[in-house]
Write a structure and sequence with these properties.
Elements: H1 9-25, H2 31-37, H3 44-56, E1 60-61, E2 70-71, H4 73-83, H5 88-101, H6 109-124, E3 127-131, E4 140-147, E5 152-159, E6 164-170, H7 181-199, H8 223-240, E7 245-248, H9 250-253, H10 262-274, H11 276-283, E8 297-300, E9 312-321, E10 324-334, H12 339-357
Antiparallel strand pairs: 1-2, 3-7, 3-10, 4-5, 5-6, 8-9, 9-10
Helix pairs in contact: 1-3, 1-4, 2-3, 5-12, 6-12, 10-11
Length: 358
C-alpha cells in the first residue's frame, strides 16, 4: 500500500467488501448492502461515512449522485496489492486440469497454444492471449561499433542467418571532438572486439540475461554503455520481429456490461485484430536481471498505455524455455474481474507451458 495512504482495518474491510460485491453484481454498492451482507458489526451510517472517506481518497466513486459507489482503478490496485489472497488449492486444481486437457506430446506447439488459450478463455470468461515462442535460436555472428558524430555511434549487427541490422546509439556523456576522433575509433574498435568475444554465438533472447558484474577491469567504465547497447538491440528485435498472438474468447468477453458502448468495442477489436504489433510489447517483455519482476504483471485501467485498454485489466506472465522467457500468456477483461481467479489462471498456464517447453 502506498506510504501516503494509510487505511484502518475497518476501511480496508469496507473497500474489500465493496469491490467483491461490485465484481459479483456489476451494480453500484450502498452502505446498507455492506452492512447486511458482510458482517461488519457497525451501522450503515458508519459504513456510509467510511465509504465517503474512501471516495475522497480516490478509491471509490459514484457513477451518479444518488447511486452507490464502485471501485476506481486505484481502488482495484489497493485490492490487488494488499487485500486479496490467492488460493493455493485452486492453483493446484488448475495445474492438474492443464495436465489432463493438454497432451504435450500429441500436438505441435501452435496447436498446443491454441488449445491452452481456449481453455484459459473458457475458464475465465475473458479474452485469452498467448504469443507464439520467439526465435530464441537466432544467434549473433558479428557486431561492429562505428562513430557517426560526437554524440552517437552506429551498431551494425549480423546474425547467423546473415540478417543485418543497424542501430543508432547515444554515446555516454563525454567530450569527444575532432582532435580525439582517432581515440574514439580506437576505443570503439576495442569495444567491438570485446563485445564479439562475449556475445558471438549468443541468442538474441539471452541478451538481457548476461551478467556484466564480472567484466575485466579496463572495461568496467563501459558497463552501462554496453548494457544500453544490449537493451536497444533486444528491444528492436522484440518489436520488429514479433510473432503472432493466439487470441480466444472475444465474443464471450464482450458480453460483459462494461463493453456496452459500440465505440469502445470497435477500438478494442481493431487493436486485437489489426494492431497486434502494439499489443505484443505490452504483454511480452524480457525482464531485466537486476529488477525483481513479479511472476504475473497486472495492469489496471489507466495503467495501460493503449487507449482501447484503459477500461480493461491486462494480466500477463511469461512462459520460458529453460530459464529464458520466450513468450507470454495473458488475459484481457474489464477492470471488474475476480482478480484472484484470473491471476492464478494465468500463472498456472504459464507454468504449464514452461514445463512443456523445458
Amino acid at each position: 500500500m502506498s506510504p501516503q495512504l494509510k487505511l484502518s482495518d475497518r476501511h480496508q474491510h469496507i473497500l474489500w467488501a465493496t469491490i467483491r460485491h461490485y465484481i459479483a453484481t456489476a451494480e453500484p454498492v450502498g452502505s446498507r448492502t455492506i452492512a447486511q451482507e458482510y458482517g461488519l458489526q457497525v451501522s450503515s451510517a458508519t459504513i456510509r461515512n467510511a465509504m465517503g472517506r474512501l471516495e475522497k481518497a480516490g478509491l471509490l466513486y459514484q457513477p451518479h449522485t444518488s447511486a452507490g459507489r464502485i471501485p476506481s482503478d486505484s481502488g482495484y490496485r489497493i485490492y490487488v496489492d494488499n487485500l486479496m489472497s490467492l488460493d493455493e488449492s485452486w492453483n493446484n486444481h488448475l495445474l492438474n486440469l492443464y495436465h489432463q486437457k493438454l497432451n504435450w506430446e500429441a500436438y505441435n506447439i501452435e496447436t498446443l497454444l491454441k488449445r491452452a488459450a481456449q481453455i484459459l478463455a473458457s475458464l475465465s470468461g475473458h479474452i485469452a492471449l498467448i504469443t507464439l515462442p520467439q526465435n530464441s535460436q537466432n544467434q549473433l555472428r558479428h557486431l561492429q561499433l562505428i562513430p557517426v558524430n560526437e554524440k552517437q555511434v552506429m551498431l551494425l549487427v549480423v546474425t547467423d542467418g546473415y540478417y543485418t541490422q543497424s542501430l543508432l546509439i547515444d554515446l555516454p556523456q563525454r567530450d569527444y571532438n575532432s582532435d580525439n576522433r582517432e581515440d574514439l575509433e580506437s576505443e570503439l574498435e576495442l569495444l567491438s572486439n570485446f563485445l564479439n568475444s562475449k556475445l558471438k554465438g549468443k541468442s538474441l533472447a539471452t541478451l538481457n540475461h548476461l551478467n556484466w558484474g564480472e567484466l575485466d577491469q579496463e572495461f568496467k567504465k563501459y558497463t552501462e554503455f554496453m548494457q544500453d547497447i544490449l537493451k536497444v538491440l533486444a528491444r528492436e528485435n522484440q518489436s520488429t520481429d514479433c510473432t503472432p498472438i493466439v487470441i480466444r474468447g472475444i465474443s464471450e468477453a464482450l458480453r460483459q456490461p462494461e463493453f456496452s458502448e459500440v465505440q469502445q468495442v470497435q477500438m478494442l477489436l481493431h487493436l486485437l485484430e489489426e494492431e497486434q504489433e502494439q499489443l505484443f510489447p505490452l504483454i511480452f517483455e524480457y525482464p531485466d536481471l537486476d529488477e525483481k519482476s513479479p511472476r504475473v504483471s497486472v495492469r489496471i485501467g489507466s495503467e495501460n498505455p493503449l487507449e482501447p485498454l484503459t477500461i480493461c485489466t491486462v494480466i500477463s506472465a511469461n512462459y520460458k524455455q529453460g530459464d529464458i522467457p520466450v513468450g507470454s500468456i495473458g488475459l484481457i477483461g474489464p477492470t471488474r474481474m475476480l482478480y484472484e481467479n484470473a491471476i492464478t489462471l494465468v500463472e498456472a498456464a504459464a507454468y504449464s507451458l514452461s514445463e512443456a517447453l523445458s
